[in-house]
Design brief:
The structure is a homohexamer. By secondary structure, the first copy, chain A, is an alpha+beta fold. Chain A has two domains: about 250 residues, 3-Layer(aba) Sandwich (Aminopeptidase), CATH 3.40.630.10; about 80 residues, RNA polymerase II/Efflux pump adaptor protein, barrel-sandwich hybrid domain (OB fold (Dihydrolipoamide Acetyltransferase, E2P)). Chain A is built from six helices and 18 strands. The first copy, chain A, has a five-stranded mixed β-barrel. In chain A, helix 1 links the parallel strand 4 and strand 5. The longest helix of chain A has 18 residues. The radius of gyration of chain A is 20 Å and the shape is globular. The N and C termini of chain A lie far apart (about 45 Å). The relative contact order of chain A is 0.13. At the A-C interface, strand 3 of A face strand 17 of C.
Chain lengths: ~325, ~325, ~325, ~325, ~325, ~325
């Protein structure tokens, strides 16, 4: 079934087009309206297509700024090929500054392949998968830790058993050159509802980039995003130049044991910093009782050693919340 | 009028007492209940009294952890005098992890001198001012930037025209030895609804300590809190020893011009880092349009030069939100 | 799968039956209850069946009043055939006075063919389509602009490529004789989730009537509803007499270009009135900034000329909201 | 006690100043922010001062547009004297499009004389009364029926026992020349919490203008607002010219018997139109049962005859809601 | 200051009058409306006045039914004197079925003496104290345990140091003859915000009756209410006859030690039943962990022995919630 | 498709394991977390498996306590076989104390067979049906009337046309020996979304136990639960001993006519008690108007005679709410 989403952007036209995906939505205050999802197409003749996505989660801001800046400032006359961009993909979530859409509680990155008649989040996923991905060669999906987590800037490639695809992804990680690159484990391959799974279904090479987080923006994370995206554009032949930098460190997150989850409710006091190298059994932090502050805090420990690439960025935590995770050197 | 709050803590008894202030509150799910505000008294014979407050705002976590740790771990036999502590002062706000109490939207630090028959937040302010402050010699009120701001750890003393009090406060700042100490300007003296204003009304020397923020906890900010509080305890004669550290830098926030406020709605991209020394007119950051990402962002600028001691820690910002402020070298 | 909805109305029994559809629904305050959807059957021997629906949207009041009046006041002994009526179809929405059901945010008119095990709105759609429509010859679905729009009273017939059906619908429009009649365009035929699409699936001739709106009721719109429904009843042979009136004007809404959508957020100042004949490019109104009232307002323009049959009836508007639409003379 | 609200507008400076009142407000997402209430000063030398207020209630839009237009378009060089304007006075209510502020549920027009330490609505009332009114000669407070009522455009003057003030108000009503002018009854004088009561306390002549309503904007109501305000400006000598129009009709609302209130819950079907002349006992409308549509509707009747100047503009009504009121010829 | 509440009830007129107190209230959906608080006056010539109150708390249903029944069924021609009744006193709370008013979170029974310009709950308290109580000789305020507690039916008299008043109250308890009568302790006299404190201020003898609870109604509790109220009416000479019953047991609640409060959060399993005679230290029940069901439950114990007259009627409990209380034989 | 839920419980391992089902759930405050559903496995060698479920509905507390107690206190060395237990099955509902999950409004007992990619409630249903039920021989699902109903303790067996299964269920009812046992009617067999329908699909014998309710816990209902579960364990050979009691009374609920539903909105006054034997036409209670207390209450009547086994436990009722039901002697 075709999408009900329309747009006045002509993806085959040269030049800069800045407009909206019109996602039909009937609400109590607007009977016949649509949700205006910002979209852009920059094109200059034939060539490769890069699909840039920011705001897959509404509380991840670095990608929203980076993608917005590119579509605002890049002169389409200077590129060869095409950039299609969604700077604020799950737009209701972006407007709310929340991970999930406030309309349908939808997590866009768990909504693929979507449904043209489903909730707004699922209708959008369907459009991205059925309309945009078939046009793309490479997808960069710019995430961060959002309101709940903070990352050492890291580029992620989904695990694959296809050797050619694996090689392409590895090359792309080197091109992007985030401080840390993580090659996904086969375990992650069962998750087929993400945008990266959708990209794989369409043979599109893609990276997910995790840039900072904690509901805020830092100059350092933005700089990494800007440089990495530019390098991928140069790599594709879209632009002629980009700034080089230090090589990335190839790591892996080989199992769920790399993650630490809160075993109780409490106020999270981390005992490590992002980037620390830790050993198995080392405490990641303590959970303090909010209601009985003199209770002995619960100590939480790493289940495997490695580099701390992600930490929980909210004090208040619930049992089951991820408190952080490590990556390990690629074997 | 006396407070309706009761407690089974006997503030004149030696030893460690860990219990609750019972703030009567009738709700739809509890007709005759009370709000259990954690409280502690550690006492060993006569001597000075230190009043320790954490959780004045519910989203400021460092003080909650620091005060909770002291009342849990400090052996009362080893002190001389008394420590009275509220580790989670605005308890409903602490449980919600929010600055304000979800019951009455009360900001405890704008609720003094309070009202025994007022909302829970005002009833608590009245208790602190009418019952606890008269017992205290020194008050340490441990804050942080909360969910919206993040601080370079800073100790603040309220401005005063009383020379003796000013000297006492300056000494206390040197004792606490936060990385930055700020002596308040006379402008701040018109704000009489804060806990520090209440302390001044009762002749209690007090500091407000701003430790990190951004809705999270960092080991570094906690370390400063622990050391500073211990040094004040040593200074008062409550404990014998404490760890010394580098001297504090005495600064001032001389006028509202030290603060930068958002002139529009948008996504805040800071262009400086905490601790940067900036000049007047330098951009503090940009506000990006959420709904039209290709709109030129709004640049916001410092109105005066100085050291960046506070920055907004949330991406999404509204017109009027404080984006940060500087402190200047004390003249 | 059969519906789980039951009723004690016997649709084959003569006389007036006023009761409820019992839609099973388990809530936090009622474990074993049902939602009581008002329903009526007026029958006198064999003959045609008219299905009357009000309250498809809860904020559209004219139909609720008109259908309620008929089932309360019409003597079944004076009819030939049967009237089945749902005066408050999406009952939870009707009770809330909102377009969508507050229970499941369901828009009944986008929920067909429904699902017997789905949310209440979808279960109701399934019942209407699988139980009521098979009994009907003609369906009148009485709408209005609801809380967000206001209409020049207009009868709408869904586009069809079936010539016999098209002729039947055209005749029905002349019978109802609303001030304006609109024959749907083929473009609308892709929308298969409406009650009118369901009617077409069952070979039931049907009109959607748009009567005023703006969250209020006017005597003029009610008079049009009462007369039009009565004329359809006479046309079907259900009743012997009805009041005639001026002929309707046959128009069309040939494309999406007939609609104007807000290009930004703001306070909508219309510059035209309902019924005005406008030309392409003429302003429909202005959007004023709420937060910066001295900003130049955004002017919105008609994309095609025609008669203004619908206008937004709420000052506050969001990008994507429909601000109004025109109909054009039928070519 | 002085207000804590500040502004960078200098009310003694010539020219056009467009900025904000800064109402300090600490929220869970902004620790140190302020609410930015739009404000303007247009001044050209000495002369009279007109205080213009729109958005006293957030769902009354005509005044917001009219005042915003004046401060945006009127060349201050062409005036003699001063215009101080609050186009969106209860700013949080304006942003929410609601009568009351969503922050404190405050009705600004029942909050005078206010309180500098009270809720935002009360702090604003205090600023208007203690800072702005002392500068004004005449106040025009532009209202409408808001979301719940709709008016025949009407200018209202508060009743007074001071003959000179009464004469001044009567003259002002003739100057404004709304279709209907209503001179307040003594009964209204006990209400001392309104802006008009505040104006009287400061010897400022003032009118409240009721312009349409029903949560929407009409060109006709706006035209009346624009012309009336301009005539008052000409009358004051602020501007040289204005468009004249038909004289106003002087009426009165002599007692509570002019008002009709809903005696039950239901869906309101009005049986009269705005501007109708009605007699005592004539039905104003009917209340239909939402949940049992076949129940006999409740008929509501006028308690006194007169001209219908106000009608309820929402279908759904509760017992106690005002359904409309009449004005009577001035005796 | 006089109340702004009006009514069309004439308290000096004979016969049955059933109408409303009109509490002016402006909301987002009704600009000029009033809250319709049901009220009744039954009068037959001169004589004593009984003020009957139900619905002081909205979740206490027995009194609402009892008072409603009396004003509906009692023939005023058969009484001597006057009954003034508020069957649903805190009307917004009654409509919501909650202890507190959803409009202002007001607990009517902690709002005396009220404020004519305060929130609706406080304005109502002011009306009851300033208008109704001065007309009354005796007040019966019919409560129950509401949603959170359940009572052994008990009549309560506020403690007093006035011997004549104490004698009058004791007599009234014997007249009402609830299964248990409790004479208040001096400790309760500091609570001056209740209706019973207001009654004492006006020299009105009054009882508070606690009838069942647990958010439900039982035939047994209703029977006690009906008989007791009737006996008080007979005692006053209002009616000639009433049904006698077993004598009441005079008890007291001498201190806060009679109450047991939850020391933690959990699911409350009571180990006693209402009416049990318990000894100090006996468990009242256990609190089970909701989130870790295998944690050892917390046992809660009576702090003094006595008769269990009240138990918590909700499984889920928070620290500080009252779990029950005992009364002891009157010494 | 396999479940995405994991657990560290090894259901084939001997001993007591107390841990959690990890239901992946991404929220605005936890990007990568899981919902921690308490689970237990007690095993001692080969033997039969009993699956124990409490908290199928979050407001039904007796089962939560009973199951929690068993897994906490029963020594696995003393059993033969295996007990798998979910003491708080719909965990988000349990934490909220509500029938439905606050996350997805899911009623677990209408969510089978579930969906591994559906909402949390549906994902859990899928896990129970696809992972746990295949391991079980007998299932006991401990319910109560929850917040809205209260039961005479009753064991229910789903109707079946399979004679062997019917015999097994009848035996199980005698073993459990609740005061009342109800054999389900064939009418109930169309409901295939319940846990009992799922059990039947897997050939697992099961009972649903209704124990008290009314949002509270009683010692009497708990005693019945404890004894009945123990007897089933003895019957299975899991434990050696159990306490015997009086035999159960076998009854049936043969049709919907056993249920009484509210015909209007109002305050429910029951006129019968649980356990009463009633005749057809006898009043079950009255519905009193909340807003017009002097309106004649609506009397509701039993549609068939029998034993009252269930009554509504909330005063406030809506049309369609179940007010109670009877069971009849088994014919």
């Amino acid at each position: 079934m075709p999408s009900r989403i329309t747009t006045d952007i002509d993806f085959d036209r040269d030049g800069r087009q800045l407009s909206f995906l019109r996602l039909p939505h009937s609400s109590n205050t607007s009977g016949y309206g649509w949700i205006p999802i910002p979209a852009a197409c920059l094109r200059n003749g034939p060539g490769p297509t890069l699909l840039l996505v920011g705001g897959n989660h509404g509380d991840e801001y670095e990608g929203q700024i980076t993608v917005g800046e590119i579509i605002r400032t890049l002169d389409p006359a200077l590129i060869t090929g095409r950039i299609i961009a969604l700077p604020a993909a799950n737009f209701p979530a972006v407007m709310a500054g929340s991970r999930l859409s406030p309309i349908d509680q939808g997590n866009l990155n768990r909504s693929f392949p979507g449904d043209p008649d489903g909730t707004p989040t699922r209708a959008l996923a369907h459009y991205i998968e059925s309309v945009l991905l078939p046009m793309a060669d490479i997808l960069l999906d710019l995430h961060s830790g959002g309101a709940s987590m903070v990352y050492l800037p890291t580029a992620l490639a989904r695990g694959t058993t296809d050797a050619a695809r694996a090689a392409g992804l590895a090359q792309l990680l080197h091109v992007f050159a985030a401080p840390v690159s993580v090659v996904g484990s086969p375990a992650g391959m069962s998750e087929n509802r993400t945008l990266e799974a959708a990209a794989e279904r369409h043979g599109v090479l893609n990276l997910g980039i995790e840039l900072g987080g904690g509901a805020r923006v830092t100059p350092a994370a933005l700089a990494i995003a800007r440089r990495g995206v530019r390098r991928v554009m140069r790599h594709m032949g879209l632009v002629a130049d980009a700034e080089d930098g230090p090589p990335t460190e190839m790591m892996e997150v080989s199992s769920d044991a790399c993650f630490v989850y809160a075993s109780d409710w409490g106020l999270f006091e981390p005992l490590v910093e992002l980037g620390d190298d830790v050993r198995e059994g080392q405490p990641i932090g303590r959970l303090h009782s909010l209601e009985t502050p003199w209770r002995e805090p619960v100590e939480e420990r790493f289940r495997t050693g490695g580099r701390v690439v992600c930490l929980r960025a909210r004090g208040r935590s619930e049992r089951g919340d991820c408190l952080g995770h490590v990556a390990t050197a690629r074997g």
